[in-house]
Amino acid sequence: MFAVKKLVEKASIKKPGGNSSDGLKASDVDPRLLFHNGVPSGAANFAFDNTHVILAISTKDGRIKLYGKGNSQGLLESSEPLPSKFLQFIQNQGILINVTSNNHIEANKKLLSDAYIVKEEITSFAVIQHSLYMYIGYSNGNISVLKIDQEPWHMVQMQYTIPLSASYGDSEVPDDTVVTHILPQPAAESKRVLIIFRNGQIILWDIRESKTVSKTGGNMSQPLHSETKKVSSACWSCPFGSKVVVGYNNGEIFIWSIPSLNIGRDSSASAPDHNTTQNTPLLKLNLGYKSEKIPIGSMKWIYAEGKASRLYVMGDCDDASSLNSLQVVLLNDNIESRTIKLGLHLSESCVAMELISAASNEQSKHRQESLILIGKSGHIYQYDDGLIERYLIQSQSKSSPSLPKEVTVKLPFADSSITTSKFISNTTDVLNIEEEYYRELIKNYPPLIMVETNQKDGSTLMSSAKFTGFSKVQNLYITGHSNGALNFWDASCPLFIPILQLKQQSENDFSLSGIPLTALFFDSTYPLLVSGDQSGTVRLFRFKPEPYTTNSFMSLTGGSKKGTDHIIQSVKVLKTNGAVLSMNINHSSTHLAVGSDQGHVSVFSMDGPTLLYQKNIASEISAGIVDLHFLTCSLQGFEKNILVVGTKDSSILALDSETGNTLGNGSVHPKKPSRALFMQVLDGQGNSEDATTKQSHILLCSEKALYVYSLVHAVQGTKKVLYKKKFHSSSCCWASTFHSNNDIGLALLFTNGKVELRSLPELSLIVETSIRGFNYSPPKHGSFSDIQMCCSSRGDLVLVSGDQEILVFSALVQRKIFR
């Protein structure tokens, strides 16, 4: 893969305050992004390297994602979180040029190689292909030239410039002379360049003679009492540079004739050896944009021999329902009187488009073209350009061809959204895997974006994956989905490998119900999986001893009698009131505690299963049980089995785990409660079942604050706050503890992307960093968040955003557990 720049900024370290501690230290942690898979949030622009077959997607916050052959992906990051104005590859050099909104020009070759700062406002940009030179156009009408020196890669401004006074030539220059487009002339890139100003003036400039060859496009008549027409998009529509298509902010599209050096090869070329001026376009395209007052946002022309050359036009439109949002029209030398066009209708408006050419490893000249689009939401859509071409050709004969279908780019196997997840990572710091096995799986992994024509679908990957038992999987990721399905993934490499799936089959069987899953509990020692769903149904899956007889991906549909005998020993179904929010198991008594969103705590004996008791925890603010923990402690001289309950309104209370009776004086809670996210019993050894009240604490994390209570006092219903930390800048949206040897730490993620690592129990800040591009919005009532997060006991965090991206982070130093 390409080198990946860290997603975290340089950590600011603060020494723990208060009493000295032998707990987690700054030297123990190193928060960093391990890998990113998918499409980054906030996608905004494209660039494509046709030679190396690399697609780049820039985001609104200064990240650039790269996609290449062999499922390779890489993530670059600008020095500042700013969007790109222009993004373009220098072909055959592997260099990506990024012009940011603050007029910084960045050259990226695997990593950020150089940055060139410009004081003027950059309004246009173009690379001279097959060279290391590039044009920079400014708002004052001037153009400068930059060159990239090799080894080390460094940008240098050349002495050659194209000043406005020389290119425009008129004694009275109009006010609006912003350079909007710089187009090196095809087949004469090093000799001539087309300069288009925002006021509509089009100038062909001879580079060697430093003079204007022709002028066109200017002095266009404007209707009275109307706004001045301005250029908003342009591209060549001829392989020899004799025609250019220009789109305007009023929705008009004109095709202008340009003098070409390739006389004889292009019938419409005009003589280039004298200065010419014309103000009449060759053709006006009526695609309906003008009538709806939609500016022309972007245009791409693709050349095809014969009568299939076509122009893609994207309107700058917020209304996706507009019939003219995105169109493609046949555009040939001999344009017929009847316009042959096709409207491509997506569920949202688009902000960028690109034509990419998929590579083939076969000795073939054929390359599969695709149209790729970025929607306003940041989703990526892809069309097969060959199907669009076929539709347009068949439309000429007045037949009724089938409409091409778009493909939404999303993570493989994301047929339903993830609603809950668990991550069990390698307890050691070293990954021990079969390299050839994973190399073969990655080769068969279905592509996220089609940049190779010979890549295989997901069935090839599933048939290649081996699963002989959970003990062989060093990093296990388990997901519960909105359709009730359960998926198990081998997360030992950046591309998660599916190894086991449990699907719905029928209501008469011990199968999944099709209702969204809301909670998971997994114990690899048995192994045992417990799932809870939105209807209050709890299922206990007991697996047979390993190894399993099968050695490929398994999709199990149903209970113990239908296709699951080789892996599942039994499935038991329990029922509670309300959606399941939390679950925990007492291993010594084999009791299962289940908490629901209606405030019910149900404790079952898993041997039956039998309901032992059910207790409702009333709340005037917000019902719901966010966490449950079994432990044994000494209370008034007697050993007592206790169930500690954390509620959504930030209350904590202790129950007799055998009877469900409340212990002490009831619950403890803050003066100003906020929504609780997480509760954990801390005992210094990380085992709450063996906790002793003298050394144990209770950690409560809410959206607004952190609290560490004395366990012995909380059990008795007395509030004794040992440590407290309030949040001021933003709300916390996720929290988890993690372990480093015998030390325990706390990871916090805030709605603005800030990440904090704190020591426990003192809550001292160790490291503060951030995740660029993270933006959390709380889900609406009854729905699920698009962002799912879970953390292993060793501080490895998996973050899944919708169906588009997976990010994996590590909090501890020297963790090398991923391929």
Model description:
This protein has 819 residues and is mostly beta strands. 5% of the residues lie in helices and 44% in strands. The chain has 5 helices and 58 strands. The strands form 14 sheets. A 5-stranded antiparallel beta sheet has the order 1-55-54-53-52, with no helix packed on it. Strands 15-16-17-18-22 form a 5-stranded mixed beta sheet. Strand 9 and strand 10 form a beta hairpin. The longest helix has 12 residues, at 385-396. It is elongated and about 105 Å long. Mean pLDDT is 82; it is low at 1-21, 264-274, 506-510, 558-563 and 684-693. Keywords: Exocytosis. Residues 698-815 form the Lethal giant larvae (Lgl)-like C-terminal domain. InterPro entries: Lgl_C_dom, WD40/YVTN_repeat-like_dom_sf, WD40_repeat_dom_sf, WD40_rpt. GO terms for molecular function: GTPase activator activity; myosin II binding; syntaxin binding. This is Lethal giant larvae (Lgl)-like C-terminal domain-containing protein.
Q: Helix/strand/pairing class, anyone? A: mainly beta
Number of helices, where a helix is a run of at least 4 consecutive DSSP H or I residues:
5
In whole angstroms, how far apart are the ends?
A: 11 Å
Q: Describe the main β-sheet briefly.
A: 5 strands, antiparallel
Strand order of the largest sheet: 1-55-54-53-52
Q: Regarding quaternary structure, how should these chains be classified?
A: single chain
Poorly predicted runs of 5 or more residues: 1-21, 264-274, 506-510, 558-563, 684-693
Portion of residues in beta strands equals 35-45%
Q: Helical percent range?
A: under 10%
- Mean pLDDT level: 82
Shape: elongated
- Could you tell me the number of beta strands? 58
Task: State Rg.
Answer: 32 Å
GO cellular component, one term: plasma membrane
Keywords: Exocytosis
Pfam family, one: Lgl_C
GO molecular function: GTPase activator activity; myosin II binding; syntaxin binding
